[in-house]
Write a structure and sequence with these properties.
The chain is of the alpha/beta class and 456 residues long. The protein folds into 3 domains: 25-133 and 379-456; 136-149 and 272-352, HAD superfamily/HAD-like (Rossmann fold, 3-Layer(aba) Sandwich); 153-269, 3-Layer(aba) Sandwich (Calcium-transporting ATPase, cytoplasmic domain N), CATH 3.40.1110. The protein has 18 helices and 13 strands. The strands form 2 sheets. The protein has a 7-stranded mixed β-sheet, sandwiched between helices. A 6-stranded antiparallel β-sheet has the order 3-8-7-6-5-4. A hairpin with a 2-residue loop joins strand 7 and strand 8. The two termini are 17 Å apart. The model has no long low-confidence stretch (mean pLDDT 85). Its main location: membrane. GO terms for molecular function: ATP binding; ATP hydrolysis activity; copper ion binding; P-type divalent copper transporter activity; P-type monovalent copper transporter activity.
Length: 456
């Protein structure tokens, strides 16, 4: 991975060429590597819901086996067998019974599965998240920074007779100075490319989900989306056609009004990640419903969704309403995953059945998520789903073997075959069989180490 001056370098990275000077911003347990190790260890020590059945059975297993051994001894005593025969039956029954296999069935698979996920850049925070991912039928993608690169650029500057292009960019960039919103940053970056010296706003007011209001050089200005302009009763009719055209091209029109009159539009566009279409296409092929959620207007949102291959779009959604949209899908009976990277995605990530944070995202988003994708690659969502299916399948195999072993082994140890003229099981053979049952569960769990993502 190419790194340039000013880029962040993760500890334990290997520098293949040349030499570098770096500054430690995190040390000890705060480093990225330490956090990854902690997440994996926490996940490996957690329990999946499927383990509850095994835990309940294991809780009553030992007293039930002791009772069965005693009952078998009493039955053979009544049948007239010798004391040595009866003692052999009791010992064999107690030895062959194996709660270990039941206890190992789930945690071993989770341990291997979460470790394998970390190898492929998918950090699964808990066994519950690993199991829930298996049942997902709907995935909601945030647009900016998730489906797109999150690095928008200014593509068009359109003005009314009230202002020049240079002044429009000057006022807009001055207002957006210090903005952390990707669209605002794009406007400021454009002004830097034009070598502009910007003014400091006399007044600044952020209007969440809409834009900003600023005062610059005595002029009252609003910079933001269509909703903001309509709320301020700004007449947009003179640039309606141009705005629609830009939106149909997948660009986001940003309006600027000066003293209550429309001054112009700055169009901003963000490029799709190269793997977005591939991930969406594969999810849809598997029957998963894919939805895009964005604060963009309907025209822009539909144009971008069409490019990436998504039919269902939730547009003009305010940051604080994203979680509510996810909740509506859940109330409709869907198992929902939310994929996002920003601070405004955190409530939706927490609300979803599974929150998936892109590793390049904010700390808040990563903290709110159940799964973290360390690479900025959406095909890792498919890796998480495939790994969940593989791990759940492996757990079920382990549980089947553990139950089958005890259901067959205990009656045989109690003398079932001997009743029909067969041999009586030797206690030494019972000990070997008991050990083999635990080893077989471990070996089956280790098969997960051969897991490979279906989509790379």
């Amino acid at each position: 991975m190419e790194k340039e001056s000013g880029d962040e370098v993760i500890g334990a990275s290997i520098n293949k060429n040349g030499s570098i000077d770096y500054r430690a911003t995190r040390v000890g347990s705060d480093t990225t590597l330490s956090q990854i190790i902690k997440l994996v260890e926490d996940a490996q020590g957690s329990k999946a819901p499927i383990a509850r059945m095994a835990d309940i059975i294991t809780r009553y297993f030992v007293p039930i086996v002791i009772a069965l051994a005693v009952l078998a001894g009493i039955a053979w005593l009544i049948a007239g067998q010798s004391g040595i025969f009866i003692l052999s039956v009791i010992i064999t029954t107690l030895v062959i019974a194996c709660p270990c296999a039941l206890g190992l069935a789930t945690p071993t698979s989770i341990m291997v599965g979460t470790g394998k996920g970390a190898e492929h850049g998918v950090l699964i925070k808990s066994g519950e998240a690993l199991e829930t991912t298996h049942n997902l039928d709907t995935i909601v993608f945030d647009k900016t920074g998730t489906l797109t690169e999150g690095k928008p650029i200014v593509t068009d500057i359109l003005v009314t007779p009230l202002i020049t292009k240079e002044n429009l960019l000057y006022y807009a960039a001055s207002g957006e100075t210090g903005s952390e919103h990707p669209l605002g940053e794009a406007i400021v970056q454009k002004s830097k490319e034009e070598n502009m010296t910007l003014a400091k706003p006399d007044h600044f007011e952020a209007i969440p989900g809409h834009g900003i209001r600023v005062e610059i050089e005595g002029k009252d200005m609003y910079i933001g989306n269509r909703k903001l302009m309509l709320e301020q009763k700004i007449d947009l009719s003179s640039m309606e056609k141009e705005s629609d055209r830009l939106a149909d091209e997948g660009k986001t029109p940003m309006y600027l009004s000066v003293d209550g009159k429309l001054a112009g539009i700055i169009a901003v566009a963000d490029t799709l990640k190269e793997n977005s279409m591939k991930a969406v296409k594969e999810l849809r092929r598997r029957g998963v419903e894919v939805i895009m959620i964005t604060g963009d207007n309907k025209r822009t949102a539909k144009a971008i969704a069409k490019q990436v291959g998504i039919d269902s779009v939730l547009s003009e959604v305010l940051p604080e309403d994203k979680a509510e949209e996810v909740k509506k899908l859940q109330e409709a009976g869907k198992k929902v995953a939310m994929v996002g990277d920003g601070i405004n995605d955190a409530p939706a990530l927490a609300q979803a059945d599974i929150g998936i944070a892109v590793g390049s995202g904010t700390d808040v988003a990563i903290e709110s998520a159940d799964i973290v994708l360390m690479r900025n690659d959406l095909t890792a969502v498919l890796t998480a789903i495939d790994l969940s299916h593989a791990t759940l399948r492996n757990i079920k195999q382990n549980l089947f073997w553990a139950f089958a072993y005890n259901l067959v082994g205990i009656p045989v140890a109690m003398g079932l075959l001997h009743i029909f003229g067969g041999p009586l099981m030797n206690p030494m053979f019972a000990a070997v069989a008991m050990s083999f049952s635990s080893v077989s569960v471990l070996l089956n769990a280790l098969r997960l180490r051969r897991f490979k993502p279906a989509v790379v």
